[in-house]
Amino acid sequence: MRGSDLACLRACHILLALLLQALLLPAKALDIDFTPSRQIASASVRISGPLLLTLQWTQPQKLDELEFYLITLEFLDSFQDTVEYQYQVSKNLTSVRVSGSEFVPVTTIQPLDKFREEVNYTFIINGVYTGQVWGEVKYFEPNPIQALDVPHAPENVSLTWSSPFNLVVHFQLPPDSELSRVPQVVYDIEWYAVETVGNETQTVSILNDSFVDDGSGQRAYEFADLKGSLMIARLRVAKNVTLVSPGLWSNFTNALYVIDVPSSVDFEVNSGRAGTPYLAVRLHVPLDTGNGVSTNIPILEYDVQVSTEQNFSETATPSHDAAMLYWTFADLQPGTMYYIRSRARNPAGYGNYSFSSYRLLVPPSAPDLMMQYQVPLAVNFSWQPPADLGYGEGVPISQLVAQNFFYQIYISNQPFSPSSIAGLRNLSGGLQNNSWYVPDASKGEILHFAVRGKNLAEQYGTWSIQLNVTVIDLPATPSSPSLVLEGDRAVRVSWNSPSDSGAGTLNDENFITKFELEFLQNGSLSSAEAYQTSFLREGLLAGVPLRVKVRAVNPVGAGNFSFLSDPITPMRLPSSPQIRNVTVLKDEGSSLVVAVNFSAPEDAGLDGIPVSLSYFILVTSDMQGCDNVTGEAAEGATSFLLPSMSKACTYTFRVRARNPAGFSSYSDPVSKLLIGLASPPRVQQANLLGGLQDNSFSWSFSVSWSLPEDTGGGMPSPEYIEYYLVEISQDPTFAQLVSQQEVSNPTFSATYSSQQLQTRLPLLFRISAMNLFGLGLPAVNSTGLVLVLPVNASVAFFDPSDQPVEQATAGSLVGCEVQLALPTQVTQFDALAVKFVDFDLSYVGALNDTIEILEAGVSSSSSSSFKLSWSSLRADQVQLNFSAPVSVSAGAELRFSLRNLTCRHWSGRTSFEIRVVSSSGLIAEAYNVPAILLLPGSLSANISILDQLVQASALVQLMPSMENSIPARCVLNLTVSPQFVVEDYLSVQRNDFLGEFTVQVEGRSIVVTRVGQEVRYGELVSFSLLGLKSVANMSVIESFALQTRREEGEVIDSIDSLVPSYSFSPASPGNLSCPVGTYLERLGCTNCPGNSSSPAGSTSVLNCSCDPGYTGVITSKSSSCSPCPAGTSKPLPGNSSCLPCGFENYSPRTGQAICPPNVDLRACDNQACKFQLLSKDSSLWTPDIWLSLGAPAPGKLIPDSDLYFSLPGQNRILRVDRQSGTILLDAGCTNGRLPSDVAVAATAACFNVPTAMVKVGNSLIIADTMNFALRQLDLSSSSVSTVAVGTPGFPGTSDGDQSTARLELPIGLAGSSSTLYLLDKNRVRVVNTDTGDVSTLAGSGANGFVDGVGTAAEFHSPRDILQDGDKLYVAESGSHRIRMLSASTGEVSTLAGYAWKAGTQDGTGTFARFLAPFSLALASTTKELFVADYDARNIRVVDLASRAVRTLVSTPYPATSIALTESATAVNMLYIAYQARVDRLLFICAPGYYREGNTKCYVCAPSCESGKTFVPLCDGVDDNICE
Question: What is this structure's pTM?
Answer without folding.
Answer: 0.38
